[in-house]
Automatic annotation (TrEMBL):
Pfam families referenced in this protein's UniProt entry, alphabetically: EAL (PF00563), GGDEF (PF00990), PAS_9 (PF13426)
Domain EAL: 649-899
Keyword Lipid biosynthesis: no
PANTHER family per UniProt: BIOFILM ARCHITECTURE MAINTENANCE PROTEIN MBAA, DIGUANYLATE CYCLASE DGCP
Name of the protein: EAL domain-containing protein
Cross-referenced InterPro entries: Biofilm_reg_signaling, EAL_dom, EAL_sf, GGDEF_dom, Nucleotide_cyclase, PAS, PAS-like_dom_sf, Rev_trsase/Diguanyl_cyclase
Domain PAS: 353-396
UniProt cross-references to SUPFAM superfamilies, sorted A to Z: EAL domain-like (SSF141868), Nucleotide cyclase (SSF55073), PYP-like sensor domain (PAS domain) (SSF55785)
Domain GGDEF per the UniProt entry, residue ranges: 507-640
Amino acid sequence: MTMNRLFARWPLLVAVAFCAYASVLLWNGFRAQAQLTAAAEARFAAEAARQAARLGDFLAERRSDISELADAHEIEAYLTNKALGMSLRYGLAASLEAIEQRLRRWQAKTVFRGQQIFGDIAFVDIDGTRLAELGNGDVAVALPSGLLGGPVIALDPVSRRIGTVAPVRHKGAIVGAVVAFSDLGILAGHLRADPDATGLREVLLSAAGEELAAVQVTPALDPELGRALVPLPAGQVVRTAEAVPPLPPAALRGMVVVRTPVPGFPLSLATLAREQDLYGTITSRAFLHALSVLPPLVLLAALMLDRMQRRNLALQARYLETARRRDELYTRNTALSREISRREAVEAALRESEQRLRKLFDAAPLPGYLVDPSDTAIVDCNDAAAAMLGYTRDMLRRMRVSDIAPDAERCEALWRRPTLMGEAVQFETRHRTRSGEMRDVVIAAVPVDIGGRRLACSTVVDITERKLAEARILYLAQHDALTGLPNRMLLTRRIAEATAAGEGQGGGFVVLSLDLDGFKAINDTMGREVGDTVLCRFAERLRALVRPQDTVARTGGDAFTILVRDLAPSETAEQVAQRLLDGLPLPVDQGGYVSSLCASIGIALYPDDGADGRTLLKNADTALDRAKAERKGGFCRFEGWMDRTLADRRALERDLRLAVERRELEVFFQPQFACDSLRVVGFEALIRWRHPERGFVSPGVFIPLAEECGLIVPIGRMVLEQSCTLAAGWQPRCRVAVNLSPVQFRDTGLLPLLSEILHRTGLPAALLELEVTEGVLIKDEDQALATLRSLKDLGVHIALDDFGTGYSSLSYLRRFPFDGLKIDKCFVQAQQQDSGTRTILEAVLTMSQRLNLRVVAEGVETQEQLAMLREQGCTELQGFLLGRPMPAHEVPDFLARVTVEMAGREGGRHLRLAVSNAMPLPAPRAAGQGQG
């Protein structure tokens, strides 16, 4: 309460605070004024002292100048000559002339602000007689009595001159003096004054108060003022109005003056200035005294205002109380009137809102119900709901929601939730249409009060199509699009389920990994459509061979995996695999030739061969690789040592990468001979790898590995570049054949690379033959044809390698621009025992002659094979009988030796073969690089 009263009297508190604050400001004002005044007077006195010092220095310099002149050697020479008795006529006149010249030079040297200081200069004897002079010689000179002490300066205010006298001594006695006169006005050049004589003014006074020098202004200084200024204390600033006695004239009021003695001379410098110029904007004391009256006046006014305010507050309180009572009565009456109006407006708005909601409910595109949750009776519905269910609105109003729901009890529980929870709810259920079709729906219901009844207003979204789409998407995500079998994702999930069930119950299961044997050849030769048909038939065969509870999955390409759960006690995993192999052989029509397609199987058991799905699948694949390596069409169960085999393969891949980086692979060359003359017509480039630990690694091992891990392209580039470089230097010139892998053939950079290598090595394009297999032609025949034609445009030769091992070779000869064929060694070596093979080989040779194609028979190893090929008309031969693969550095010697033997042979039919020290290891060839 006390604080509230203080706040109510805030004007008085503010006035008291203001008075205290103003008092402090006034005290500081008086103090600051005194400090500023003292500082201004100190600066004024200091400047006057500097001016007086400059005047003293000027007069002292003149005294020093005249003293220097009195000691001049010209005057000393004159006095010496005179003492020697020299007469004026015979020598003294010249000395006096020299003195005058010296006086003239000295006069010209002593200047102040461009004006000569001394006007009259004379050299006089002890009696004052002028012996030598400059200027006006009419002025009488009386030597002062004080010359014994040195030069004397006398200021004459009457003649307005400054007389400077310096004694001339000769042999210790004063024998004369040098006298110089200057205008007293020259001292005015050191003084300051305002032009209007009302501001700053400096006056030089004698000891008697006579004005000696001043800047001439109007009006002139009153002579009485000078005598009045002399008694003033030296260096003290005095206001003219406060001087005792007062300074005349009265015009000097409002000014200050300071008298400063000139050091070294009986003179004073009087400096006058206006008070306003000296003190500037320093507040006058009268103004501060006037301000000091303000705080009491403010405090008095605040006291009066406080009293009046308290009286007004009392009157206002009585008035407010009366007004409050009147307003309270008016407010109650107004509130009653507003409440009546509001109720009327609410009722009207409710009626209008009900009409709008009714229209909106009826016209809404989404189905909607108004349901009584107590018994699920449909109170009302819109046209969309009737259309969705196939009923009329009147029929639905006589039904319950439980009548159209498959589960009436669950339906009633769901519809009671909005009223029980008192908020909007959403749930998913199913409705039966009038035709009996079940529809999946999502219902959003909110509780509403209508006519005193607690109902649930809902919207219904038909999600049947969405559920079907989701199921389809889920199916597609977990099943193979071609065969309809589960894919790897679904298989992995089911293996995880089986693993969890096995851990809980202690049961085991089997994972079988299958791979079709020979499917790649079918896919490459017959096309992808035929391959897809074979895969679908194989998938149907697998489904027919397993139980319904087992899972058959396609995990990629021609790879399948079977999960066999709950294996019967009387059946082993091996028996299951054998049953599958017995029922799997699938007949396939390969262009009129029906073959039986089989599979190889790898087996992994849980928990013996792995505790999780990833390990089981990996181990089953490892066992499958082993089964394919041992005998295609069989099965193999996983064993621990197989992991080591896989690790060895990974190590071999790592070493192969290092070998490619370090350029450790070597290119060997196997000669090719003309069948009739056995003349060397070319060489085939073969790749070899001398492993630092494993020794020579068969191309049949590392070439497939290079194709799988992507190293075949850099290896092929290296073989092509080295072959062209070496062949360019062979003598005599002969052809070099390089095999292109399918990956190299499809590389867009092949043509630029080949053109650059031929240009750089200088090898004629006609001496390079590129060998391709059917594998590079199958996938995109149009693109392959364009590539082959581009290669032909470069001038290189194209040969079809391994002719006869595929099923489309004849059609390739018709479509593609080949220069020659290479007969696979299996035909060459089998024709002696198989008449059918011999017939096929003879037909190929006859056809090649008709098509003008060069034929190279590979794998010639016996004289019998050589003889048969000659009889059959083969054009070229290649094989161990004639020449083994040799390192690159042995080729020139081999060519030279064979050339000499050919030249020395005169009609002989057999050439003595010189077989080089080539590798004793037969070199099986692999797809992708030529091997011999």
